[in-house]
Amino acid sequence: MPRAHPEFPIPSVGVLVVKDGAALLVKRGNEPSRGRWTIPGGVIEVGETIHEAGRRELREECGIEIEIIRPLQIFEIITRADDGRVRFHYIIHDLLGGYVSGHVAPAADALAARWFNADDLAAFDVLPDVAALVREVLGRDK
User: Fold this and answer.
1) Strands 41-43 and 10-19: what pairing?
2) Rounded to 10 degrees, what is the CA torsion of 8, 111, 81, 77?
3) Between vectors from CA 39 to CA 19 and to CA 114, what angle results, nearest 5°?
4) Count H helices, E strands: the chain?
5) How far from chain centre, in Å, is Cα 47?
6) 113, 62 contact by CB (below 8 A)
7) Integer Cα distance of 117 and 32 in angstroms
8) 3-state SS, residue 69
9) What whole-number distance in Å separates Cα of residue 4 and Cα of residue 55?
10) What is the helix (H) or strand (E) element at residue 132, kind and residue range?
């Protein structure tokens, strides 16, 4: 199924990984939101559980191993083309993850990856909903 102009919403997973009071974010290399900082993750593959997809995506996108702690929220991204047609429609299951091992290294689909403290967010182009979730989680899970 094509990701642009899909026939159905695309089920996806994002994992907000926390380590030592900081959250891991990636600078997106692809649309939607290319060049903006967000939670790492991606499309759930057929036959994969949400937790399996989350662990695989963090391994592939950031080079680290994680554990899934709990669900956080379900988030939707719907963007439209100039003609009004749906360009992208993702249903994202955001999970809270804990760092296990590895060194953060962004993959080809991420321009950068780094750990953010809540105070860092205002200085970067972080998606507003992501910044709010990071502040909420870091305030609660220090």
Assistant:
1) antiparallel
2) 50
3) 50
4) 2, 7
5) 20
6) yes
7) 24
8) strand
9) 25
10) helix 128-140
3-state secondary structure of 84: coil
Query: How high is the pLDDT of residue 83?
Result: 95
Tokens encoding 9? 């919403």
- Residues 18-33 have a mean pLDDT of 90
- To the nearest 10°, report the CA torsion of 92, 106, 2, 15: -10
Per-residue pLDDT of 92-119, as tens digits, reads 999 999 999 999 998 878 899 999 999 9
CA dist., res. 22 & res. 66, Å (int)? 14
- Here the tokens at position 17 are 């990984």
DSSP 8-state class, residue 126? B
CA-only gyration radius of the chain, Å: 15
AA letter at 116: F
Q: Is the pLDDT of residue 2 over 80?
A: no
